[in-house]
From TrEMBL, chains A, B:
GO terms for biological process: thiamine biosynthetic process; thiamine diphosphate biosynthetic process. The gene is thiL. CDD domains: ThiL (cd02194). Catalyzes the ATP-dependent phosphorylation of thiamine-monophosphate (TMP) to form thiamine-pyrophosphate (TPP), the active form of vitamin B1. This is Thiamine-monophosphate kinase. Mg(2+) 5 binds at residue 227. Mg(2+) 2 binds at residues 51, 80. It comes from Candidatus Desulfovibrio intestinipullorum. InterPro entries: PurM-like_C_sf, PurM-like_N, PurM-like_N_sf, ThiL-like. Mg(2+) 3 binds at residues 36, 80, 224. Its EC number is 2.7.4.16. ATP binds at residues 127-128, 154, 226.
Length: 343, 343
C-alpha cells in the first residue's frame, strides 16, 4: 500500500488499521500486499474487472453509512465476477479520503468492506490512499475461472433461448428515489428497497452454478444488470457494446419478454401504485439491483430453477432486433428517466 | 468499460476514442474489455499493483501536458511491475474527468498512455469513467513472472550484499521544484530534470534482466524508488513496511553508502550549487525518479554492469540497523523536506 494522506493519520496507523480488517496473507495468494506488487498464482485463468464508486455520483454520505459504502464499493465489483461465473479471489483498493472523515468512519468503512471480502475469502492485495476533496473509491477485482469452458460471457444467445433473471428488478430504484427524497428515514417505510440500494448482495453462488452448467453444455450468456434492463438487455443480445466485440455472434437478435406485475417485489408494486407508475416499466428502467441477466437453452431450465434461488424466466430470444415487453417495444422506455443514471 | 460522464461525450464516442488508442484484442489476453470481466491466461503467476494519480496531489495541469499525464499515470504503475522483475501484460483504468477537459485533451491523454502501453505491449482490459471535480486517475497493472523464482521482492538482503541503483537519483526533485516555481518555462533551463519528473521511463528491461539473474542464483532484492532513498532504503532493508511482512528476513540490517557527488546528474549538481544545497542530500531525499533500488551478492556485479545501462553501486548492506551515506547517518535527513511528498 502507498499512503499520501497528509495529517490524516500516520502511514503506520493506516497500515495497522487495514491489517485488522484484511489479513496480509491468504491461502491461494503467493504474495500479499506490502511489496511493489502482489503475486497471484498461475493455476487458473483470471477474470478482472474494475469500477469507480464516487460520492454524489454513485452514493451519498447523507444517507449511506460508512459500512454500506465499504460494502457496496466492493459488492458492485464482485457482481462483475459473478456475471462471468468466476470465483472471487482478490482485489485492490484505491481510496481518496476527504479531511472530514475520522478514524471511526474509516474503521466502519473497512469493516463493511472487510465483512464482504471475508464472506468470499478475498484478499486485499494492494492499494493507494490519498487526501481528496470528495470521497472516491476505485476497486479492481480478480476472480478465478472454476473449470474448462466455465467463463460466461455476454455473447452466445440464440433464437429460442430463454431469458432469465436472478434477483429482483426495480427494487433499488425505489430505494434510490425514496432515499433521495427523504434521506435515511426512507429505510423505515421501504426497508427492502433501501436495502437493495444500500447493501446489494452480489450473486456469486448463482454465477458459479451457471458456470458449472456451462462446462457440460452450450454456455448460458450472462451479465449483471447495473444500468437497468432497458440498457443492459440490448448488450446481452449484442445490439450495443464496445465496437467490434459482439459482431461475430450477437447481432440480429431481439427478445419477447413477459413480466407479469405479480412477479415483482411488493415494495415496488406499492410504490408504483402510490406514484401512479407502471411497476413493470419501473422494473425495466431500474438499475443498481445487481441482479444477473442471462439466456440459456430451454432444456437447462429445470436444473437451474432447482439449483438457484430467485431464478425467474422473463422471456425468449427472438430473431430480428426488436425487443418487446408485454407486447410494448422496449425502445419506448429508452431515455424515459435519466434519474436512474445517478444510482 | 462503464461510462458515466453526463454530457461530456456519448458513451459510444468515448468507447470509439478508446478503441483508437487501445486495441480491444491482444495476443496473450483471452478476453479483452467489453464484457463484465476481461480474462487473463493461466500460464504464469501474475504480479499486480495499483496507484492513484491525482491532480494537485501527484501532478498539476498547469505544467503537465495531457500526454505527459497519460504517460506518467501508467509509467508509475509499470515501475512497480519492473521492481518485481515482471513483464507488463495488462492494465485497467478508472478515470474521473472534470467538465473543462475537452475532446482534444482526452485524445492527447490517451495518446500518451497508449504510446507507453504499446511500447510494452500492454492491453487495456477494463475501466470506468465518470465526471468529477478534479482530474483523477486510478490504474491497476498486471504483469507476468518470466520464470521459476524470477519474482523479485524487497526482501532477502544479506550483510555484505552490494546496494545498487538503476537510473538517476534526485533529478525529478529538481524538476519538481523548478516546475512548481516557474511553471512550464523551467523545461528550457532544466530539460533533463523536468523530463525526469514529467515523463519518467519505467526500468522494465533492467527489472527483467535482474529477474533472469535470479533464476540461477540467490535473487537480488529489488524495489523502485518512489519516495526517495531516505524512505525507500529502510524498506528494502526490512526496517519498515507493512506489519509482519518483513520480520522473517529483513530486520537487523543497515547500510553504508558511498555516493560521490561526481556520479550525480549535471543538472542536479548545477541546481544544488545555485541554491547552496548539498547535491548528495538532494539525491537521497528526492522521490519520483522511478529508479530501481536493490541489493545483490557481489559476484553478480560484473554481469549486471555489463547488461544494464545506468546501473551503479552505491554501497553495501551491513549488520545493525544504522544507515550511513558518506559517513553521515541517513536518519538526519528524515523529515528534512516534506515538499518532496507532493511529487
Amino acid at each position: 500500500m502507498t499512503v499520501h494522506v497528509g495529517t490524516f493519520h500516520s502511514e503506520d496507523d493506516i497500515l495497522n488499521t487495514l491489517g485488522r480488517y484484511f489479513p496480509l496473507r491468504k491461502p491461494g495468494i503467493l504474495l500479499g500486499r506490502g511489496d511493489d506488487c502482489a503475486l497471484l498464482p498461475a493455476g487458473k485463468p483470471l477474470s478482472v474487472s474494475t469500477d469507480l464508486f464516487l460520492e454524489d455520483v454513485h452514493f451519498r454520505r447523507s444517507y449511506c453509512s460508512a459500512e454500506e459504502i465499504g460494502h457496496k464499493a466492493l459488492a458492485c465489483n464482485i457482481s462483475d465476477l459473478a456475471a462471468c461465473g468466476t470465483r472471487p479471489l482478490a482485489f485492490t483498493l484505491n481510496l481518496g479520503l476527504p479531511a472530514d472523515l475520522d478514524n471511526a468512519w474509516f474503521n466502519a468503512f473497512l469493516s463493511g468492506m472487510g465483512s464482504l471480502a471475508a464472506k468470499y475469502n478475498m484478499a486485499l492485495i494492494g492499494g493507494d490512499l490519498s487526501r481528496t476533496r470528495d470521497l472516491q473509491i476505485s476497486v479492481t477485482v480478480m476472480g478465478e475461472v472454476i473449470g474448462e469452458g466455465a467463463f460466461l460471457s455476454r455473447g452466445g444467445s440464440m433464437p429460442g433461448d430463454v431469458i432469465f433473471v436472478v434477483g429482483a428488478l426495480g427494487l433499488a430504484r425505489v430505494g434510490l428515489q425514496e432515499l433521495e427524497a427523504h434521506g435515511r428515514e426512507a429505510v423505515q417505510e421501504w426497508p427492502k428497497a433501501c436495502q437493495a440500494l444500500l447493501k446489494p448482495e452480489p450473486r456469486v453462488d448463482a454465477g458459479l452454478m451457471l458456470a458449472r452448467v456451462a462446462m457440460n453444455a452450450r454456455p448460458p450468456a450472462l451479465m449483471d444488470v447495473s444500468d437497468g434492463l432497458v440498457r443492459d438487455l440490448p448488450r446481452l443480445l449484442g445490439q450495443t457494446g464496445e465496437m467490434g466485440v459482439w459482431g461475430e455472434h450477437g447481432s440480429g437478435l431481439g427478445a419477447e419478454l413477459i413480466i407479469p406485475a405479480g412477479l415483482l417485489q411488493a415494495e415496488l408494486l406499492e410504490w408504483s401504485r402510490r406514484h401512479g407508475r407502471n411497476p413493470v416499466h419501473e422494473a425495466l428502467i431500474g438499475g443498481d439491483d445487481y441482479a444477473l441477466l442471462g439466456s440459456c437453452a430451454p432444456d437447462m431450465l429445470s436444473a437451474l430453477h432447482a439449483a438457484i434461488p430467485d431464478f425467474w424466466e422473463i422471456g425468449v430470444v427472438t430473431e430480428g432486433e426488436a425487443i418487446y415487453c408485454n407486447r410494448e417495444p422496449l425502445s419506448s422506455l429508452e431515455g424515459f428517466d435519466h434519474f436512474s443514471s445517478q444510482g
